[in-house]
Each structure stands twice: as structure tokens, then as C-alpha cells.
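Here we describe the complex-level prediction in full. Unlike the single-chain runs in Section 2.1, the two entities below were treated as one system.
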Amino acid sequence: MSDYEFDAIVIGSGVSGGWAAKELTEKGMKVLMLDRGRMVEHSADYPFEGTGPWEQPYRGQTPPALLEDDYYASRYGGAGQTAVKGFMNNDRLNPYAIKDGPEFRWVRPGTVGGKSITWGRVSLRFGPQDFEANGKDGHGNDWPIRYDDIAPWYSYVESYAGIAGSKEGLPHLPDGEFQPPHPMNVAETWLKTRLEKAMPDRKVIHIRTANMTEDKPEQGRSRCQSRSQCNRGCSFGAYFSTQAVTLPAARATNNLTLLSDQVVTSLEYDPKTKRVTGVRTIDANTQTTHTYRSRIVFLCASAMASNQILLNSKLPGSDKSFADSSGKLGRYIMDHPMLTLFSGNLPEGIHADVIEYGRKPAGIYIPRFRNLDGQDADADFLRGYGCQGGGSRGVSSAVGFGASMKAGLRTYGLWSVGFNVFGECLPYLDNTITLHPTKVDRFGVPQALFNVTYRDNEKKMMADGVRQGRAMMEAAGLINISAEERPHIPGDSIHEMGGACMGKDPRTSVTNAWNQLHDAPNVFVTDGSAMASTSCVNPSLTFMAFTARAADHAVKQVKAGAI
Amino acid sequence: MAHDHSRIDRRGLLTGILAMVGGVAVAPIARAMQAGMDPGYTPANPFMTADQRALTAAVSERIIPTTDTPGAIAAEVPAFIEMMLSEWYWPGERDLVMGGLAAIDAAARKTHGKPFAAIMSEQQDAILTSAMNQTLPDAPADSFEHLRQLVIFGYYSSEIGCTVERVYLPVPGRYDGAYPYSEVNRVFSS
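The structure predicted for the assembly as a whole is:
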């Protein structure tokens, strides 16, 4: 197709990179996919899948000293589990400037497949109101697209990935292409019935999840086996991951070259043609440097890592990034505050004779109910939040010791339900990622420095979540109710977004409506960094949809000779 | 040896052979009987004396005794505790647990003139009750609770705990959120 080594280079192999590789190779492009992490092959490299705790070092619990030294951020993404640690970044070897700004927990993966192996799999669409919010309340840049622009691409990725959920007809949480939902247990059904009756503006629905309830034999994937050990890797391919879904598709085209252990340090830019002309790498094991060349580049390194790469990609003879003519690169960093928690027990005797068989990979969801029809009179904050949770029945607590304690631990306690509140964070110009002026990593790349804080709106929203959570638990008739907030640390929900935000105007935004850099139209940034706002829903499905949409546009542009 | 076993399990699991529990129960008991006190672990920094090991075993077995299913010793909990204390715990936590054990043994020697491991079960239980109620002389605060939690974790994460005492479900295959407890009368493990 061209004089380049490759038609396209995809930087990163996580949720977004995997989709970019799949779509571009299937459209006939020769693609090089680079990942800084080590190789993980589907099934073969899931060493702890299907093992009992006695078969794992320290019964599956990473020693605390190791967590403090090597996984001080990854510990918030599951590195405390032996079976997950191997998929996470070693923060000692690959640090960021965590001590130099307000606390930001940058949870990173350490392998090919990125966070797609260990993600939470909740797959919800942004609603029409999410793409309108910035324009309406003036925070951040107005999105250059609307829901209808992305809706068909949601359908496209949902159908292939396999999303289980229920159609609910909610305008602000649009339905998608769903497999049947994972069934509710008796506690979840009990809560749904009682809460929806007591508070008619609240809904309790199956959370929508990328864990299949039907087989996809054409992809070699089976439905969920109810092990709920997803983040160890799943040889059934029951949940969406690069390894199970997009990588096999891309490989099947014979158009893919995948290189692991390749750290992208920066992009080479030609100011005359306004194009990126090369991708500079360093081999994580051999320290060998190389510059790969292609016609187009998909930057999918993860939201913050893509920012770091762009910030480190200078105009020739300048210390300014080529991608920052707007002055907005690295700004509007967002995450979902989520440490508002509420829970309760079903009263004694309710469903006392039944328990759970198997382990469900997904729970229930109370979709956003705040500020949907204009501003609620009693809401002192903008936008809203959703509540993610589930019902379960745990083992009775251990009382005393000896034979009586042992007998007691053969029984179950009361059914319980519990939720986390996920709130929308407003885009703030001065919530930033920058490059540390002096600290570099072992590859000579300046370390990422975060200056991200939650503000008044987030604090009021999370406090409202406590009040509403308690009210909902009370209205449903639960007992032992708890509703509380813990410190909301940005990064905690691992939904970090922004920094290369989309917008209509090149003077105020970094990427356009097709995820293209305003400053280099042959670069498409399709991970979370391009998000102009966060909604209150989990974002990975949206990254998939944007990536597929951008790939389609990119190939058309290439074929038309436009880029 | 244990490694081979896990590999066989995993292959069985992935081909769907090991979909239910049943037969796996016998193997770990048999192995535990043969192995006696073989811990199955080699602590990187073994630090207990023979007396401390006997004490740890005796206390563990009273916290989770042999009933209709094996107890803490058969489940190799004492060796697990030594391994965790030497390799996993912070030094301060280790001192806390060891201080609690020492206080338990001292009470046995004072009251009965023998080490804790050598007195009758009823006598042992009386001392442990005192430890639980935080009335044992010289026992660091909360040391018994730390020890108790360590025994509970070690037992229910062991092969015996997961597959004999509990009903191991590595591949449930389906989810039922209204499953009669009377079908199992036990707790499922994973």
C-alpha cells in the first residue's frame, strides 16, 4: 500500500490498541503493534488460572513488603493477588513521580493485552446527555460529536465483544446489542422489587458486562463458567480481552506484526508536512533503540501513557510538544471518584434457606438518577453518578474457637447488598499531567507528574451519594445499613481520562471528532486521553467504539490519499 | 510433587473433567497422613524452635480441631504459620503472634507444670479462652486474634480446607442465585 515499513503502527495492545489492530488489519493494512510489556499468550500464559489458594505462593496473597516496594500503585489494581500481580506494572522498575504532586494512583498493566486482562468488564454506553454536558454547563470543551455519531459503533463493538445485559429503555443509559444478562440472585431481585416500588425514579438493573452468557464458537470462545476469577486470565475466552478477542482476529489476517517489550519513548515529527514520521522505541530488555515508520499511527498506550508520549515528542529544536499548539495537551485529566459506599443486610429469615451456587462475574446497577431532567432542585452539584454493586451471601463470621467455630463456619450469614458510587468528574483545565523536570525512568523518559484533584462539585456529588445511598437502603427495608465516604484519590477507579481531549476548535483542543491530532492528522489517539468528559459510566466500551470508528475513518482517508 | 499435582488439576479443569467435587477429597487426606508434619513448605527463614513448632501445632489444632473432617494439623496449618511469619508478616506482627504463643505456653507451665502441647485438651481450651478474653498474663493485646485469624486463613485456604471441609467448585459452569443450602449443608470454596 505504501513505501513505509508498515501502513500503520499501533502503540499499545490493550482495549483500544487491540481494537485498532483488529480493525486496521481486517481492512487490509499491514500493522505493527508495539507494547512495552512482556508477551502474554492466551491461555498458555495464565499460570494461576484454575488453581486453588493452596497451589499459589502465600495462598495467593502478595507479601506486603513486596507491594510497598514494587507495586505501590498497581496494588490498587489487584497486584495484591498473586494470580494478578504478573499482569501488573512493576512500579519500582517503571516509576512515575508519585511523591511530587497530590496523590494520584496510576495503575498500569505490565504485559501485552494491557488492562484488558484485568479490567472490571462493566460495559455501559455513554448517553446523549453525556456528549451534551460540556456544551451545556461550560466545563471543558464541547464534544465535537453527539451520541448518534457513536451509537452504531457501540453496536458494532458490542456484537463482537459479547456483552451480557438487559434492555431497559432508559434514554440516558441507551440499550445495546446484548446477550442475556447474568441472572440476579434472590437478594438482588428482592432489592429491585422493593426499591423500585418505594422510589419509582430509581431502577435496579443487571449491570452490563463483557462476560458472555452465550458461546461464540466462530471466535473459539465459550460462555462464562461462573468461576469469577477473570483477572487471572480466562482460557474459555468468556470475557473480552485482547488475547481472547481482538488479537486472534488481527493475527488471522496475516497482516499483524506484534512486538512486545518495546517502550515507545516519543514520536518523530516533521513540521513541514505536519506529520508524524516515526515511532521511537527502546527495547526493555536489550536497550536497543529503533525508529519504526508507517503512514499512520494509532496511539493507544493508555490515557496517561499516551499523554506522556505526546508530551515527550518535541518540535525539532524546541522543548514544546508538537501536539500542543493549543496549549491544552495534558490538561483536563479526569477519573471517577468512587469511594462512596453503601450497603445493608436483608432482614433475618429472608431467603435464609438458599445460597449462591457458582460465582457471578457481574452484579447490579442503579443508573444515574440525578440532574437528568435539568438541574434537580435539591442537588448542589452538576451532572450525576451511578451505583454499581451486587448481592451476595457470605459465610457466617467466626465466633470463638474450636469445634463450635468450625461448625459455625459451615453456615451462611444474612444476605447482603452493597454498592460503590461512581461519579462524573468535571473537566478542569488545571488538572494536569506533565513531564517531571528532572526525574527520568530507566529508559531516559521523563517521569509522569500528576497534579489532579477532585473539587467542590465532586465532593458535593459524593456526599449526595452517601445520603441517597442511605435513603435507598432504608426505603428498601434493609438492616445494618452503612453509608460512608472514604478519601477519593484520583486514579483509584482506573478510569483516568483526558489530556488529549477532543474538540471542534484546534485552538482549544488536541484531537478532532475522528480522534486525529489537530497538529498531525496521521496520528489517531483513541484511548481514554481523547475523552472530553467522563460521563459517570465505565469508559472502556466507549474507547472500543471510538477506536473502531477512527480506524474506519483512517482507512478511508488513507485510501482517498488524504493522509 | 505438589507442582505436578496442580498441573494435572489445571489440565483436568480446562477439559471440563473436574467440573464437580466428589473424588478429590480423598487424596489430600491420604497425603497429609503419609506426610505427617511435612509442611509442604520450606520457609526461607525457618526460625521456630522444636518447642515452638509443637506449641504452634497444639494451639492450631485446638482452634480448628479434627472433627468429622481433618483439623489444622492435617491441613498443615502449623507449617503455614511459620512460613507466613518468617516470609510474609512484618517483623512487628511476627513478634506479636510469637508473644501471644509464648504467653499461652507460659500459662500452661505455670498452671499445670507442663508445656501447652502436653496438657489435656480441656486444659488447653481453658487457657485459649483466657487468651481470647485478653485475660492471659503477659499476652500482647490482640495477639490471640491475630493467631486465630492466621489459623483460620491457613486452614480454609489449604487443600483440606477448600476440598474436604468445604465444597470446592473450581468450575461451577453456571450460576444459581437461589440454590438450596440443604443440597450441600456446607460452604462452597474456590
